[in-house]
């Protein structure tokens, strides 16, 4: 839902007016035309503005007014930050006027602007969650508070808004209803040119681990802040405590929270999920959290067996969090390996494309085709197919394996393919195959006779490897995969069927630089076999 177009500041002053009343109160006129009487002595300082007690001039209804002074144009970043809450407030007003669900959001009653100052007129709150949580001592009442906070996040999500600074002091109780407030850090996801001015902004004890590594805020970062708020409400203290302010990044990334001593396994497990270091392991969205909380409240009677199973599940969640520090240290390595795997697959594609380019200079119909994890090098008289799959980083000697797979000519496997990465993060593709003299080949598959032991050596899982026994005359060959090696294998596989391709490839080789060792060995092998 989109708000009305915001007008430039210098054109909006006609919507506001203020004057000094006889009792020294400040009178402001909002964009709605209503006037509001502000008590300038009842001040409560805030990060971007000050909040005053006020009342409606027409009926005396108590309200609060937030006054935000805008900086000069030279400080453009601070200007945007201070205008943000005003913009989101107008969007909430527009949404409420059009029937959107905003019961658990603090929607401004009016807005005004005068003399380079912004005014937000809001319902007056009884207090915030940080101040009033002591009033809620039993678990059920705390869950009801949480349900209302999460309902606010669901409503924000429906409007396409991220809060980005959820914490107890930004949750207000108004007329017995808890409402999410203070949208100075919020972001409207529908903005086509969203500002990056708040990258990494927030309140440190509530900032998700990914924010500390420079990632952008998402729904999952709001859920992490909800997890800290939930823990704090249930336990009376935050899940993490630091001695120094600069310890927050490390603590959020590596330290696991202490288990909650609750008699409610479902709520315990939900809280730990919200606090998970991995955004993907947190609940999908606020609606999922709301569904869990509501079902937890409605389950007034539960069998002993179900309670036992729920406790087991909660214990398992606790155990997982105890190992999170180790997992986080491995995550960086895993991310680097995944990036290297993507890069190395592109390298394999490039090798095939270059081989096809080389062939086309002599064989116009040659082509390389990529289909997901399969790469095929086609020429009129031969075809070479490479199929690979992620190796889950199985160790090949001292190097992790990124990919593993096979090289086929038709239905005949002619080689074992794998990609390894060294300590300098350099990846190389290796080809292992056997050259078996023709007189010892007993069947179409004997060209590549792998044993299970051979396959496991190079990271191939047992069910992927045929249990062939290599004949004694077999000669194992291992090569770093290159364009030349691909052309060599392609020529070998086509040799028994038609000699013209071998002739064309030899002509291609001779056209290249004959001083290259790789090509000289390539030519010598073929010339010695004729």
UniProtKB/TrEMBL annotation:
Q: Which GO terms describe its molecular function?
A: ATP binding; protein serine/threonine kinase activity
Sorted alphabetically, the keyword list is: ATP-binding, Kinase, Nucleotide-binding, Serine/threonine-protein kinase, Transferase
Against SMART domains, the record matches this protein to:
S_TKc
Q: Which residues form a coiled coil?
A: none
**Superkingdom of source:** Bacteria
According to the entry, every stretch annotated as the Protein kinase domain falls at 37-294
Q: Which InterPro entries match?
A: Kinase-like_dom_sf, Prot_kinase_dom
The protein's name: Serine/threonine protein kinase
């Amino acid at each position: 839902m989109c708000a009305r177009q915001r007008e430039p500041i210098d054109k909006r002053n006609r919507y506001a007016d203020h004057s000094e009343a006889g009792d020294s109160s400040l009178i402001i006129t909002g964009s709605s035309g209503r006037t509001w009487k502000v008590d300038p002595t009842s001040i409560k300082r805030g990060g971007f503005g000050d909040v005053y007690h006020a009342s409606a001039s027409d009926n005396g209804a108590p309200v609060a007014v937030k006054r935000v002074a805008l900086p000069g144009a030279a400080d453009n970043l601070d200007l945007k930050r201070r205008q943000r809450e005003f913009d989101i407030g107008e969007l909430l007003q527009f949404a409420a006027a059009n029937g959107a669900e905003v019961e658990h959001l603090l929607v401004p009653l009016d807005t005004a602007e005068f003399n380079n100052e912004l005014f937000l007129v809001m319902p007056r709150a009884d207090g915030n969650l940080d101040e009033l949580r002591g009033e809620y001592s039993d678990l059920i009442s705390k869950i009801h508070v949480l349900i209302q906070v999460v309902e606010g996040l669901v409503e924000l999500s429906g409007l396409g808004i991220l809060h980005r600074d959820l914490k107890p002091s930004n949750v207000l109780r108004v007329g017995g209803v808890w409402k999410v407030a203070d949208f100075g850090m919020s972001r409207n996801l529908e903005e086509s040119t969203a500002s990056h001015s708040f990258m990494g902004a927030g309140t440190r004890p509530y900032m998700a681990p990914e924010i500390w590594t420079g990632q952008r805020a998402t729904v999952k970062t709001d859920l992490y802040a909800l997890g800290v708020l939930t823990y704090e409400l249930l336990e009376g203290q935050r899940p993490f405590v630091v001695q120094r302010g600069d310890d927050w990044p490390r603590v959020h990334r590596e330290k696991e929270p202490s288990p909650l001593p609750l008699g409610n396994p479902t709520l315990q497990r939900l809280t730990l999920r919200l606090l998970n270091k991995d955004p993907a392991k947190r609940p999908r969205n606020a609606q999922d959290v709301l569904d869990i909380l509501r079902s937890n409240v409605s389950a007034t009677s539960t069998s002993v067996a179900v309670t036992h199973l729920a406790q087991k599940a909660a214990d398992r969640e606790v155990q997982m969090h105890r190992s999170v520090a180790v997992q986080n240290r491995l995550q960086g390595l895993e991310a680097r390996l995944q990036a290297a795997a993507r890069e190395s697959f592109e390298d394999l594609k490039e090798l095939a494309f270059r081989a096809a380019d080389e062939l086309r200079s002599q064989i116009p119909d040659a082509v390389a085709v990529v289909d997901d994890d399969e790469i095929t090098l086609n020429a009129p008289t031969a075809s070479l197919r490479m199929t690979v799959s992620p190796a889950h980083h199985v160790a090949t000697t001292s190097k992790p394996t990124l990919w593993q797979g096979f090289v086929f000519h038709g239905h005949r496997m002619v080689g074992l393919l794998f990609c390894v990465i060294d300590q300098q993060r350099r990846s190389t593709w290796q080809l292992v195959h056997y050259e078996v003299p023709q007189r010892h080949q007993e069947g179409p598959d004997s060209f590549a006779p792998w044993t299970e032991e051979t396959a496991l050596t190079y990271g191939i899982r047992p069910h992927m490897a045929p249990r062939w026994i290599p004949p004694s005359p077999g000669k194992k060959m291992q090569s770093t995969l290159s364009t030349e090696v691909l052309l060599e294998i392609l020529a070998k596989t086509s040799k028994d069927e038609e000699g013209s391709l071998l002739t064309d490839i030899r002509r291609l080789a001779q056209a290249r630089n004959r001083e290259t060792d790789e090509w000289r060995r390539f030519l010598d092998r073929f010339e010695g076999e004729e």
